[in-house]
Design a protein that fits this description.
By secondary structure, the chain is mainly α. It has one domain (2-112). It contains five helices and four strands. It has helices at residues 14-20, 27-36, 43-51, 58-63, 66-91; strands at residues 2-3, 6-8, 40-41, 110-112. The strands form two sheets. A two-stranded parallel ribbon has the order 1-3. Strands 2-4 form a two-stranded antiparallel sheet. The longest helix is centred in the C-terminal third of the chain and has 26 residues, at 66-91. It is globular and about 45 Å long.
């Protein structure tokens, strides 16, 4: 699965979301799912997206391998999706259904590389 601009929650297995968004280090889970899904990302878009988080500087991102960038994107997307699913469960709604009163601070069902 090659991600150019965005990844939708429906593209990622629920087990992947659970495994990659656990508390503590998720490196092994992310590495497993990266291979399982053949998950890759558009390098330039991933770097721009990751710079927006402030956790990595431009030099570090430029020096990162494509696999490292994809790992970070998958990890962030799974955490965002997990928050969204938890928010929906707490509200008593099925996360697969559109929410009319969506609160963007509670995760999202789409992760955009921007």
């Amino acid at each position: 699965m090659h991600i150019v601009s965005h990844v939708d929650i429906a593209q990622i297995p629920a087990d992947c979301i659970r495994d990659c968004s656990c508390s503590g280090r998720a490196d092994d889970a992310v590495a497993h799912w990266l291979k399982e899904l053949e998950f890759t990302v558009d390098r330039a878009r991933a770097i721009r997206c990751l710079q927006g988080y402030g956790a990595w500087d431009g030099d570090e991102l430029d020096a990162s391998t494509d696999e490292e960038l994809a790992s970070r994107v998958l990890w962030l997307a799974c955490n965002d999706f997990s928050e969204f699913m938890t928010h929906c469960e707490g509200a008593g709604v099925d996360w697969r259904s559109p929410l009319d009163d969506f609160d963007p601070s509670s995760g999202s069902d789409i992760f955009v590389l921007e």
